[in-house]
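Chain A, query sequence.
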Amino acid sequence: MLLDFEHVHKNGRDYVLVPEENFRKIREEIEDAEDLRLLRSARIENEGKPLLSHDEMMRELGLDA
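Chain A, predicted structure.
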């Protein structure tokens, strides 16, 4: 992903300014990466444990209609 940005040095600090559209894309990619990390962690943690069907999970959550 090519990004437009502007480097700014002000009051002894460095800043990077990016257009809002780029910021949204970056944030979405970070959120997707975090979701994937959590999924992989959950799969490792639950490996070998019995699985629930969709219907069983709905009942367990009290969402069976």
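The longest helix spans residues 20-46. Residues 6-60 form one domain.
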